[in-house]
Amino acid sequence: QVQIVESGGGLVQPGGSLRLSCAASGFPFSSYAMSWYRQAPGKERELVWSITPAGGTTNFAASVKGRFTMSRDNAKNTVYLQMNSLKPEDTAVYYCKAGGRYWGQGTQVTVSS
Question: 32 by DSSP, 3-state: which?
């Protein structure tokens, strides 16, 4: 069965960094575009970053430009979201999505002093 498991979230101070990981199984990972989304309390879920099966960027949120980067390792069936210069407004549950259909359960990121 399909499994998508996010990890790496936590509490970090403003200006800090976190690296999220998303481990996937149960589908042909290397053939799937992958995305990170986030949802803050009281807000709609929004796209953070998306990449092609080969790892090329297809889209990202303007608010994370220059601070976040998404990458993938097809040998490990894993995608990453490197988040630098974090701001309180980055606080959200971060979700990994495979193609247009499979979602993970999310990992909480809290940016606070």
Answer: coil
